[in-house]
Amino acid sequence: MRVLGIDIGTTTISAVIVNDNNCDVERAYTIKNDSFIKTIHDWEQIQDPDKIIFKVRKIIDEVFETYSDISAIGITGQMHGIVYVDKSGKHISPLYTWQDMRGNEEIQFSESVCDMIYTKYNQKVYTGYGLVTHIYNGLYGLIPEGASKICTIMDYLGMVLTGRSTPLVHSSNAASFGLFDTEKACFFNEIIKDLNLDEKILPQIINDFSLLGTYKGTPVCVAIGDNQASFLGSVRDEENSVLVNIGTGAQISVMSDVYFESTGIETRPFIGHKFLLVGSSLCGGRAYAVLENFFREYAEALNVNEVNHYDIMEKLLRNRRENNEKLIVRTTFTGTREEPEKHGSIQNITIDNWNPASLIHGFLEGIVDELFGMYENILKGTLKKENMIASGNGIRKNHYLQDIMSEKFSMSVKMAKCEEEAAYGAALYGLFATDKKSLEKILGTKNISNNLCDNMV
Fold it and tell me: Which residue ranges of the chain lie beneath pLDDT 70?
């Protein structure tokens, strides 16, 4: 028997076929998620749910035509963003993605929605979080008429596949909306009431491994967050490991037995009585792409086209001369969640170090430095870890970044076994949710499995 895992990412959609006997990936699919909708607002980042669902269903139907023994479908995808659905379960809005910036727009008295919530309720929420988007939409009359519930895009996929009219949302996704009590696995209802929000629009939450329904007779699992799915799909020695993901953005995640708060760190639901301590870089791997674009624009001005500038950047790094006076690059080009107005910078420029190779190296160090600062905050609430697992194309395809990461964290970097780690994690979740495999066997640990059993009694 086989399990299908699906990951609806921001820029790509991935799927994997996993053998439920040995948990090996038999086949992987990755296609572009070119579903962004053009808008007149610079701060608005929205995608077309119909286009996304069409692409995913095309993959699923191809899988079902090829394999007759799919025993479960596990789903994950981009967190934080929301879709409005009506009473019949049909979407009536675009997908407001996690990259949407309306939460930082001034609404009154020089405050944004994020500022207002922090000032009034001492709750830290960030732009792109579903309830921040919803509050802004409510203030400006942007909530679609007939909106009944909100959910993530992967929850909506589950509804479409199973024919549900209402979403059932795992706590890992619900927490990503903001204004969520992670310790109690519920929304801050008093704050929501005080903001005059209709509580009925909030989805039903589940904290356990569960099924939504079936698609062509195959069980479909409740969707989980891509951060949790990536951890599940990448890490085996979860007690002693750090997971670093570098793609468009970047994240550092550590599992914890206890709830913990620190500046710039989120505590997210994981599985059972476990949490993930997470630091998120908004720019992350995109910083390297920004630098590549800088070089490309200059080359094109010289009429030098069709050049792989990443290869040239790697060549420059290979021939780089060490310099005691390094460039200091802060790659916070799109701000941080704590300080959205923060900009990046290049410092410590000298005649000797102002050259392309030093600049490229400085950008890579800047990406790592931001993540390391988050890790230092995480260590205030947990023990130092021994292993580093890396995932995401931003680091998988750049061994110089791997070396810098290893040196900074004093750990050897091991790449996640599966490149589509979130889709793989969703498939493993499917194995457990359908009672095909225990997490003790999947993760090689008794602690998580025991806690899950306690949680599901």
Answer: 436-457
